[in-house]
Amino acid sequence: MFGTLFVKRTELYNAFVSASSQPSRQPSDDPSRQPSGVPSQRPSDDASLQAADDLAQRAPAEPSELSPDDPSELSPDDPSQLSPDDPSQLSPDDPSELSPDDPSELSPDDPSQLSPDDPSELSPDDPSELSPDDPSELSPDDPAAAEPGVIPSPPRLHRRRRPSRRTALTLDAIVAAAIETLDEAGVAGLTMRRVADRLGTGAASLYAHVSGRDELLELVFDELVGQVPLPDPDPDRWREQLRQVLLDLYRILNAHADAALAGMGRVATSPRALDATERMVLLMSLGGLTERVIAFGIDQLGLFVCATAFEDGILERSGMSPADEARYWADLHMFLNNLPPDRFPAMARVRPHMVGHGDLERFEFGLDAMLAGLEALSDAERSAAR
Question: What angle (nearest 5°) sits at the alpha carbon of residue 242, between those of residues 272 and 283?
């Protein structure tokens, strides 16, 4: 607005000076061309020059009298002309202020020339256009780039997910989980719910594979029996091979708490238990044992293995520490040694052999006694049949 008023004042001044500098027109001496009642007169050249000089003297003095702090009095030719850095001096409504010939015109490199609200000012060729590398440029993911009134997405903590405990629900997976549960809680703690929890599923989903706890115990025993290596039958080594099969079964059952109970009170009906039974019956047949001795013997051998394995693990499942267990056996041995020999004379004679022997040694003794007894019974039956 101030620039517009100044230009108009300047134009009026220039027009007045130009008009004053032109030669004065001589008024006609013809009385007919003079208005009626107006005396004919001719202005003096000296008077015109004097008026022009007066105006010229006043004009140059005006800029020097204006205070530089008054932006309305600055002329376009004045060095103190408005700088492009002063946004208050640019009138967006006056297109005449920013002419191409005006040295004060804002250059394309001037960031103040870019109006964020004017999309036409950001041309592809404009070097002041924001580049993708400019950190001040708002990316689509920048919360500040969201539309007004829209709440941006809050930041989230990226937590590391725990590995899932869920296992593919198969019969083999259920049996493996049941063995782990058995080792941890014993037969009394082996429930469908605990097995399901170990698999990361519900107890109801197990019933699609097993009918209940009893069948699950049978499958557990079948899996453990299946871990026993079965030898190729050799008639010359039948007794040695049979003994090794029973010894391996004892060690496997003894390694799993209460697992031996799963084989007690049950007739072998599962596939692997049947395979093991078939192989042992074949070995006893190659040894020449009678059919009656084989039938009764295979049942008693299995019961002996399971019962001994279960009994040998009782102290381990009692919660006693190794030191407490050792102290118990020492106290037991002392008790037997202090029995009065006059009251227990037979026990007093064998007392040294009643203490100081481990579980495995005792098991092997019992196994050898049973095998020897089966042979003796078979010979006795064969002799009685003659």
Answer: 80
CA nearest to 16, candidates 62, 58, 74: 58
C-alpha to C-alpha distance for 168 and 359, rounded to whole angstroms: 40
d(CA 265, CA 262): 8
Output 255 or 38, whichever has higher pLDDT: 255
Tokens of 202: 């519900």
The DSSP symbol for 35 reads P
Domain ranges of the chain: 171-319+356-385
Residue corresponding to tokens 């006795």? 380
Which are the contacts of 325, defined by CB distance < 8 A and separation ≥ 6? 315
CB-based contact 204:197 (threshold 8 Å): no
Distance CA 87, CA 114 (A): 12
**What is the architecture, at CATH level 2, of domain 171-319+356-385?**
Orthogonal Bundle (1.10)
Say if CB 250 and CB 308 are below 8 A apart: yes
Specify whether the CB–CB gap between 65 and 78 falls below 8 A.
no
Tokens of 77: 């030719």
List, for residues 210-264, the tens digit of each pLDDT value: 999 999 999 999 999 999 999 999 999 999 999 999 999 999 999 987 888 888 8
What DSSP element (H or E) covers 4? helix 2-21
pTM, full prediction = 0.56
For 177, the token pair is 């989980």
Residue of higher predicted confidence among 291 and 101: 291
Please give the Cα distance from 294 to 368 (Å, whole number).
16
Neighbours of 360 (CB within 10 A): 14
The residue behind tokens 């697992």 is 259
DSSP H or E stretch at residue 171? helix 171-185
Q: Are 284 and 242 in contact (CB under 8 A)?
A: yes
